[in-house]
User: Fold this.
Amino acid sequence: MKLVVLKFGGTSVGTIEKIKKVTDIIIGYKKRKNKVIVVSSAMSGVTNNLIKKSKQISENFLDSEYDVLVSSGEQVACSLIAGRLNHKGFNSRSWLGWQVPILTSGPHTNSRIKIVNKDKLLRFLRQGGIPIITGFQGVNIDERVTTIGRGGSDSSAIMIAKFFRAQRCIIYTDVEGVYTTDPSKLKKAKKIKVISYEEMLEMASLGAKVMQPVSIQDARLNRIDIEVKSTFKKKPGTLITKRKNINKNRIITGISSTQNDAKVTLVGVKDRPGVAASIFKPLSTNSINVDMVVQNISENGKETDLTFTIKAEDLNKTKKIIQENRRINFRKVLFKKGVSKISIIGVGMITTPGVSFRMFQALANKKINIQVISTSEIKISVLINKKDIKKALVTLHKEFKLQK
Amino acid sequence: MKLVVLKFGGTSVGTIEKIKKVTDIIIGYKKRKNKVIVVSSAMSGVTNNLIKKSKQISENFLDSEYDVLVSSGEQVACSLIAGRLNHKGFNSRSWLGWQVPILTSGPHTNSRIKIVNKDKLLRFLRQGGIPIITGFQGVNIDERVTTIGRGGSDSSAIMIAKFFRAQRCIIYTDVEGVYTTDPSKLKKAKKIKVISYEEMLEMASLGAKVMQPVSIQDARLNRIDIEVKSTFKKKPGTLITKRKNINKNRIITGISSTQNDAKVTLVGVKDRPGVAASIFKPLSTNSINVDMVVQNISENGKETDLTFTIKAEDLNKTKKIIQENRRINFRKVLFKKGVSKISIIGVGMITTPGVSFRMFQALANKKINIQVISTSEIKISVLINKKDIKKALVTLHKEFKLQK
Assistant:
């Protein structure tokens, strides 16, 4: 008998009608002779509403009480799912983090799951029960309620799948899977059938909001196969798996892009140890997210040019911070708005030479100027003018045959 | 150092602003060198909203999941209170039923508190902490979340006061205390300073909605003095205490009345064992609440007349049930709408002869006809025409000098 872990996100259980729909999916798996463990998020909107309340109480709401507060959301969703399954004649019950228990360590609001205790759940599964486990939460050694950070229900499901050695972990959500690029930006975007953890990590951190990077990392470290699929449409989703399961002939898996960035270039920076840190520390302190960073080798070993990108909306704040920063010496600073980043991602590029050339050539053929280049093992990113982004997406999607 | 238990009802913590107000009250007690334990209900409206959801899921929502569902409400309120106290610089934390633990027995949705474990709370109190305990809920021997019935946060506070031998248990609510009669019906109604458990029980079951009878009974059995007072007005409330603490000269403590009842009289009922049961069982099964019941002695030992009252809105349903009831024999049945019950309550009547005479005479002087009389040790109730109820209230309130 197979054991499957099904995880439902907030939008999947956002209304009573959707909860009824979700229980039908669960019953489907149960009827196919599976052992089923369900993990649920809070109904959509609930967690944000609770966070809003906490901010009205105090801008520095105590972390340990924040965890008690927001964990109530999953409690509600899980009891409703379990109640519905019982209504339909199935033996089901909710399991709160402390009841399993799911033991966590680390600070409140950002704990990590250490152990999922199996004893009680296994007994319940053997009786044919369907446990509905609260995602996102656990309990620490002091018997305090903890949470594992936002979007953490995915991680809960993955860790439960790991401890139970589940055959499958299926993440039900409001999208149909992972696409070759954002379908709202390019109609020809295609659902990806199989993607590796590493590619998914690059896609996720670049804007594919299907799963939090931390959850994908959890899956990667524990070698758990994840299927992402739609709660509302009965279609195959995307399998996130080990790199070796990926089709060897595929060079590029997906393309991601940013909407509206700004570029900052410091010309003639005194090249000495710690200079980069003294530039970026005040930005980080002010919650400005620095994306691409490129530093050219200095000609004379004394000066260098440093370029980095930020979100366009952070430009004014960044200008102020850079200009008031007395700890760095530079000759000139250039600010440029209206740039976007486009990245091609694929494990296939490791074994395929000339991928970057193909990318640059395809863009050049369309007269798209490349301002900055940055690469990793499975990703090539370039900075271009914002106005060219749509053309670049179309061009690269076609060049690497992603619509097929 | 005194230990006080403060309980806040749903309307007292109904908004963020009210929660801030409540924390000011708590801080007031703490600053007066008290050890303070707080018990809170859910924010008003929250529990009803959750119950509504459960009914949308299933008309027969599983009791054990109902408890998980609704107990989330107190969790939210308590974390917000604790968060606010920390914001104000006080050491406070929420304690969920299972964390204390508050051990209960009995069925889900209607459990009873058996033990309030003191160890962890005492340690926290010794560190100067202010525990905020979720009312209404506990945990059973199987580590399942339980609730103790609606309005049960009062009982939680009383049981906590008992186990901690608290000097005082103060129920903060949206009324200023218990009144000689309903102030919305009689402007001259006065707040009662001290009332016995027994009087309060008669007042409560007759419609004074300050505390649930079951909570008053808990206080009575455990000899806990309760003060009921307003969260929003800084005024003395009502002390509910042992009978011996009541002023011996006071004959009547309060007057309660019903709005709109109906009277049913079965004439010529065959007088044999079990006949009353066979009349009232089908009414009870149909959730019709029978109030006064008066049976006359039968003249010949074979037949009797039986009169009882019900709420006016239940009359049609009652007619149908009585007329279709084949298990009882009677000659005639009379139904009468438009009646009300008025009751005078006071432990003083036990030692004062002639109280009932004074009541009947006062009503007779105002030409108010008495249709049915029923008495208990500390209460005399009469049934009169609904149109006379205001006049009767004024008359009896004056007769027994309750406005002074």
Summary: The first helix of chain A runs from residue 16 to 31. Chain A has a mean pLDDT of 92.
